[in-house]
Design a protein that fits this description.
The chain is mainly beta. It has a domain of 47 residues. The chain has no helices and four strands. The chain has a four-stranded antiparallel beta sheet with strand order 1-2-3-4, with no helix packed on it. It starts with 21 loop residues before the first strand and ends in a 12-residue tail after the last strand.
Length: 82
């Protein structure tokens, strides 16, 4: 399978001063409705183990994105700290 890059940019831009700050490890798919669905992890800083699985959707082929929020909102406060 060959992919063609049509455009590049950000799906999520966090505020590094007020966590969550970084969006990492994104994966995007096209839904049956033709929307783009992107899953990614948000972490408060590099090398922090406080990832929150998050979803975003685009209905205009990726020109704009709407962050839907955490996949598992009830687990948001159960951060592993050691």
């Amino acid at each position: 399978m060959k992919y063609e890059i049509l455009n590049q940019g950000f799906i999520y831009r966090g505020d590094l001063q007020n966590p969550p700050g970084l969006g990492v490890t994104s994966r995007c798919v096209v839904t049956r409705k033709g929307e783009l669905l992107c899953s990614f992890l948000i972490q408060s800083a590099l090398a922090r183990n406080d990832f929150v699985s998050t979803l975003a959707v685009s209905s205009d082929q990726g020109a704009t994105w709407c962050v839907r929020g955490p996949v598992f909102p009830h687990l948001r406060e159960t951060i592993y700290t050691r």
